[in-house]
Write a structure and sequence with these properties.
five-stranded mixed β-sheet, alpha/beta, two-stranded parallel ribbon, 14 helices, 342 residues, single chain, D-Maltodextrin-Binding Protein, domain 2
């Protein structure tokens, strides 16, 4: 009943929205800074949308939880108080179990494989997986692959046994660490540094940007370059509102979405490598690189997690994700050419 009420409210908002004079006001809200990949994507969306639809739309971007924070933004979207969001994929568990696929450990070989899956037919199917809840998706913005950190080097799954790891509130992530005999602890992100510093937990998992900007590398002795999971966002809109827009406006906004998301991902890739290098240059934590055999051990140890959540996610989606690890033929040739030059 709650969702029906929210959707009815959104419909009423959409009708009044369409009747207003002047340009259509589009509120794009997010919870991070303008300087982040997500923040940059939102700014680019405003720039492109207003250029393609001069006088027809006005995009208002609200960063840093200025309108709504993590706990309220989804409800605000369904009520029509905001039109576009870009939440972390971990936030969609209550709306669809399928998006849990991005939490499965060691499913993707690297960020390129993540991109290939997200751009595939199966990956794009997830944009409509929350239609019954009044949510439509448009694209994914990367925040980087997650790396393991701890107060000891983690080279094999056995090294994690008995350690306490901070996790986001996710059943998949909880199962991930239990699979290797570790103890997952759900702790708010704002409390992670202190938890690591005081020894409340022994380790964590984060992309390079979080590791450096939140100074986790200063309170962790080792960072294992595991790339075992992905921390991404999905750009979404209120579906009732979107469906009520004129066709020409939808066309222009769709083009703006495509361009802004591509721009955000370009920024994300550049920043990910830059933050990795900053962590290395700081020399406060030692970098642990996994061999191919060691990575295979981690994947094998955590594969039961894939099976555990297969019914909720769908075997077809998991198979498509695994297939995305296969590089396109042209890339294989390029890799071989590069290898021959060594």
């Amino acid at each position: 009943m709650k969702f029906v009420s929210l959707m009815f409210g959104a419909l009423l908002f959409s009708l009044s929205f369409a009747a207003q004079a002047g340009p259509l006001i589009i509120k794009y809200s997010h919870v991070v800074a303008d300087s982040t990949p997500k923040g940059q994507a939102a700014i680019k969306f405003k720039e492109v949308a207003e250029k393609l639809l001069p006088g027809k739309v006005e995009v208002q971007v609200f960063p840093n939880s200025q309108l709504f924070g993590d706990g309220k933004e989804m409800e605000a979207l369904l009520l029509g108080d905001v039109h576009i969001l870009a939440p972390s994929l971990a936030k969609f568990g209550k709306y669809t179990k399928k998006i849990q696929i991005f939490d499965l450990p060691f499913l993707f070989d690297d960020i390129d494989a993540v991109g290939r899956f997200q751009n595939s037919a199966k990956g794009r199917e997830l944009f409509t997986s929350m239609s019954d809840k009044g949510i439509i998706g448009f694209g994914y913005i990367h925040n980087g692959m997650k790396q393991l950190s701890a107060n000891k080097p983690l080279r094999t799954p056995a090294d994690a046994k008995g350690l306490k790891f901070r996790i986001q509130a996710s059943d998949v992530l909880e199962a991930q660490f239990k699979a290797v005999g570790a103890n997952p602890q759900k702790i708010a992100f704002a409390e992670v540094y202190q938890a690591l510093q005081s020894g409340v937990v022994d380790g964590a998992e984060n992309p390079w940007a979080n590791i450096y900007t939140k100074k986790f590398h200063e309170v962790q002795g080792y960072i294992t370059e595991s790339g075992h999971g992905v921390l991404d966002y999905m750009v979404i809109a209120n579906e009732q509102w979107w469906n009520g827009l004129p066709d020409d406006v939808k066309k222009g906004l769709s083009e703006a979405m495509t361009e802004s998301i591509a721009y955000g991902n370009k920024v994300a890739q550049e920043e990910d490598m830059a933050f990795r290098q900053k962590v290395i240059d700081d020399k406060k934590a030692k970098l642990v690189k996994l061999t191919k055999a060691q990575r295979a051990q981690w994947r094998e140890a955590m594969k039961p997690v894939w099976t555990k959540f297969e019914a909720d996610i769908g075997k077809d989606l998991i198979d498509a994700a695994v297939a995305a690890n296969e590089k396109p033929a042209k890339n294989k040739k390029a890799d071989k050419k590069h290898s021959d030059k060594k």
